[in-house]
Amino acid sequence: MLKFAALLSAASLIPAFVQAAAPLYGQCGGQGWTGDTTCVSGATCVFSNQWYSQCLPSNQQPQPSTATTVAPTTAAPTNVPAPTTAPDAGNPFNGYTIYLSPYYADEVTAAAAAISDATQKAKALRVKDIPTFIWFDVIAKTPQLGVYLADADAKAKASGEKYLVQIVVYDLPDRDCAAAASNGEFSIANNGMNNYRRYIDQLVAEIKKYPDVRIVAVIEPDSLANLVTNLNVAKCSGAQDAYKQGTTYAIQQLNAVGVYMYLDAGHAGWLGWPANLNPAAQLFSDLYRAAGSPQFVRGLATNVANYNALNAASPDPVTQGNPNYDEMHFINQLAPQLTSGGFPAHFIVDQGRSGVQGLRQAWGDWCNVYGAGFGTRPTLNTGSSLIDAIVWIKPGGECDGTSNTSAARYDTHCGIASAHKPAPEAGTWFQAYFENLVKNANPPL
Ligand code: BGC
């Protein structure tokens, strides 16, 4: 007691309150955060989104440090710009070198440095040479696209190779309408559509500066799939018009600057149920036609950030009841229905975290599935003329959602038995999860 009193009086002599620092990868800010806002030495507190800032290694790629306030009321465009060139016929990945995300490479390098086992460390480091998509999940990140495109352009010119940058467009207002973990920064009620158009315009402005770099974009994970099956959720029915308008705006504007696009189409355990195939094909086809059939829309992306196999050796028990128990079955069933609706039936499939099957207790488990391993490496040898490429879209090691039950974006899927815990906020680095992906990689790293 006396000691405590002595400490108190000593502390009162110190002018500013000295806080303990948050650990590497710990939370250091965000809406409602009352803990430490400084980081241990060697780490910097990096803004991720309005809910979360995280202590990342100081040598990491700098992130925009504040959320951008968006100017109101950009009027909806009345005419749709046309592209200056026609898309190349065939697979847009053919003949291109895929740009490696420096942001992900930095995350992986820092993660490997924290692994003491030499074999695992060496395996972890190999991951930074595997291309992943770069997510633009907040408007503050859009200037970064110009930095990556400039870098890719310089690398292309120095090497004589043609470069392709893979991005994810992910900022619709009222995002993630049937879940909570990835709720976005824009709300429909608060100028969300104008903000979204501004977000797309900012991406387009960067893209225009680098006409020699090819871009492949995945458009808005989960959004249209939610409109197929989740209109019973109030936030989804309320977002229906905004999702359609926003997607239409995105594909028209990105078409005008020659971005090859794949719209997100959920996965086998979602739109792959026989009753969902036709409504899904209908929605994609109708939206595409109404947007003027933008030529650079190449097809659909499946299994984004999910865990399904492309070709399951045998059906995972959780898939029972669905004959389309893997992505190949799903794609083979969906393709003819798209074709008859006039939608281009080409696909890319995320296999980044699909290396281990049989882990889930229910097929709907999507959050940080425990025991997952890195999957098939990106390749154009897909085994199907419908599939342009096997890709890694979710950067493995970035979290699907927090397991902190008091967080604003807590989703129960991130707290269930098959989810790896404790987990930080969606999109931030999850070291323990990454280490498991490395250990369980199939094929091995
Ligand atoms: C998160 C995004 C993140 C993306 C890639 C999503 O689940 O909501 O913030 O950029 O994953 O890790």
From TrEMBL:
<protein>
    <recommendedName>
        <fullName>Glucanase</fullName>
        <ecNumber>3.2.1.-</ecNumber>
    </recommendedName>
</protein>
<keyword id="KW-0378">Hydrolase</keyword>
<dbReference type="GO" id="GO:0004553">
    <property type="term" value="F:hydrolase activity, hydrolyzing O-glycosyl compounds"/>
</dbReference>
<feature type="binding site">
    <location>
        <position position="366"/>
    </location>
    <ligand>
        <name>substrate</name>
    </ligand>
</feature>
<feature type="binding site">
    <location>
        <position position="398"/>
    </location>
    <ligand>
        <name>substrate</name>
    </ligand>
</feature>
<feature type="active site" description="Proton acceptor">
    <location>
        <position position="400"/>
    </location>
</feature>
<dbReference type="InterPro" id="IPR036434">
    <property type="entry name" value="Beta_cellobiohydrolase_sf"/>
</dbReference>
<dbReference type="GO" id="GO:0005576">
    <property type="term" value="C:extracellular region"/>
</dbReference>
<feature type="binding site">
    <location>
        <position position="270"/>
    </location>
    <ligand>
        <name>substrate</name>
    </ligand>
</feature>
<keyword id="KW-0732">Signal</keyword>
<feature type="active site" description="Proton donor">
    <location>
        <position position="222"/>
    </location>
</feature>
<dbReference type="Pfam" id="PF00734">
    <property type="entry name" value="CBM_1"/>
</dbReference>
<feature type="active site">
    <location>
        <position position="176"/>
    </location>
</feature>
<dbReference type="GO" id="GO:0030248">
    <property type="term" value="F:cellulose binding"/>
</dbReference>
<dbReference type="Pfam" id="PF01341">
    <property type="entry name" value="Glyco_hydro_6"/>
</dbReference>
<keyword id="KW-0119">Carbohydrate metabolism</keyword>
<feature type="binding site">
    <location>
        <position position="135"/>
    </location>
    <ligand>
        <name>substrate</name>
    </ligand>
</feature>
<dbReference type="InterPro" id="IPR035971">
    <property type="entry name" value="CBD_sf"/>
</dbReference>
<dbReference type="InterPro" id="IPR001524">
    <property type="entry name" value="Glyco_hydro_6_CS"/>
</dbReference>
<dbReference type="GO" id="GO:0030245">
    <property type="term" value="P:cellulose catabolic process"/>
</dbReference>
<feature type="binding site">
    <location>
        <position position="267"/>
    </location>
    <ligand>
        <name>substrate</name>
    </ligand>
</feature>
<dbReference type="InterPro" id="IPR016288">
    <property type="entry name" value="Beta_cellobiohydrolase"/>
</dbReference>
<comment type="similarity">
    <text>Belongs to the glycosyl hydrolase family 6.</text>
</comment>
<keyword id="KW-0624">Polysaccharide degradation</keyword>
<keyword id="KW-0136">Cellulose degradation</keyword>
<dbReference type="InterPro" id="IPR000254">
    <property type="entry name" value="CBD"/>
</dbReference>
<feature type="domain" description="CBM1">
    <location>
        <begin position="20"/>
        <end position="56"/>
    </location>
</feature>
<keyword id="KW-0326">Glycosidase</keyword>
<feature type="signal peptide">
    <location>
        <begin position="1"/>
        <end position="20"/>
    </location>
</feature>
<feature type="binding site">
    <location>
        <position position="306"/>
    </location>
    <ligand>
        <name>substrate</name>
    </ligand>
</feature>
<feature type="binding site">
    <location>
        <position position="137"/>
    </location>
    <ligand>
        <name>substrate</name>
    </ligand>
</feature>
<keyword id="KW-1015">Disulfide bond</keyword>
<feature type="region of interest" description="Disordered">
    <location>
        <begin position="62"/>
        <end position="87"/>
    </location>
</feature>
<feature type="binding site">
    <location>
        <position position="394"/>
    </location>
    <ligand>
        <name>substrate</name>
    </ligand>
</feature>
